[in-house]
Amino acid sequence: MKRLSANEKWRQLRLRERREKRRLRQRASQSSRLAERSQLWGRGFDDAPEEEEERDPAVLTYSWPDVPDRGWYIREETATIKCPKTFSLIENPDETIEAFDRMVVARRDPRVREIIIDQRGVVDTDLCASAVLGVLVQGGKGQVDRYQHLLPTDPAARELARAAGLPRILRVPFADSRGVLFYDLVAGPPNAQRAKGSSLKEIEATNIVDYIDRCFGKYDFKLLPETRRHLSILITEVLSNSEDHTDLGAWWMAAYLRQGAAFGDCHLTLFNLGRTISESLRAPNVSERVRGGCEPVRQALLSRKAFKRGYTEECFWNLAALQPGVTSKPEGATVDEDRGTGFVRIIEAFQEIGVSPRAPSAPVMAVISGSSYIRLDGTYRLQDYRNEDGNSVQRIAFNADNDLKEPPDRRFVHTIRKHFPGTILSCRFYIDRQHLLEQSRHVTALT
Amino acid sequence: MSQRLLDLANYQSGGAKIFAGRDRGAFVRSAAALAEFEKSADDVLEVRVPDETYAVTSSFFLALFGATIRALGEAEFRRRVHFTGRPVERLVDQSIWEALEAQKPFSLA
User: Fold this and answer.
1) pTM of the predicted protein model
2) B9 vs A: CB within 8 A
């Protein structure tokens, strides 16, 4: 046996002491964690179902692996996550994802015992950003002792943050949701398949469609059966993709309607952490017909050196996923009008019914997957396009010729600096009774 | 000749009004013994789609009936399988096309 030198013995002794101290500190913090958290967050935080406590850390640990650690915002045991002025994945994806990255780094750093979420400077926020942050907070329950949430100082942002922001996502008691019809954040547990009865995605898709119907009901309208059908198919498709394309098959969904006297402001978000759209469409098990069908367009773009910094192959695949019949499912249909286009058809429906002349902006949907961003706000729409075979097909290419072989308008399809490790779909629209009275394609007045 | 019944309401729970997913379609197919039905040339099948159903997705429908459509062919499928309740004609037409013609090439170009 090798004899250790005095120095080596001393070093090993120090190492053993340090390990023992760490073990004792972990044990002590575990016993005091629940009590401390109850003081800070109230009972709501601890009332979360047990199974979520076990699931979320694993999801987040697996799914956010490559965040560069630039821990400058970590001071001793406290990390401060400063949210940007526009804390929104639709309007400001880069800075918003940067805040998520910091949260992930802080949660992984064993030194960090307290995380301060500083939203004092936030002026504009939306549901999707709060929902993702909420999932990250929930996922860190076993690793961090305390969270502090500093609410926005701007009165409107503060009211929204209390009603539909982090407190509401985490269901803490001081959330004030008056005037807000909330669809609580639901998480699709991994591999939640019940063969005889309905699956969770079927149940939750039904619930969210009913919820949207209730939102219109607040303004004396209801969805037409055909719109309800399209919406149901879209949501189940997105949830199925989430289950199929993530390592653990998990997804999250939330929504709210902020009821104003003149019009309602509705947000809906669905997201997963796992493979991006681009990774899914390039996976070996994707139908060869689908991948092969996209290939000539990709080659045309490659030969013209159309892929540059602002429009990459990842963006191309994200855009391809919006086209009719393109699906990453191995058994996927190629011409099924309910697939692929469901996405675009629904946002087009919302762009017709979800308009309010009194609202600050038009209805909008953003799709962020990896480092690609697509914004649908009605500027470009699904249009008929005559393909090389002379057949008329529907396309949305985000350019004047509606041709996928041409690069899209960078204002609507572009790369972002940051990387979202999964796919997020975020939709904002309005419910204005006056506007709804003028059109009846997707909704009908309640009698 | 015997009349069989497949009531999709028996495969719903939790207030769901949507039928979605390949796994679920495959389960219903197995529970309804459709492979056996395909072999009994005289049998006809009534498929009851609950009236309050919001949507039946093509992945569910193809997992349930894709093999039957391929085994029987379009005419025989239409003769022996009847749908009642919520109308699903468009889905049936689309799925028959999908099940039988799915090898055709596809192009985004």
Assistant:
1) 0.77
2) no
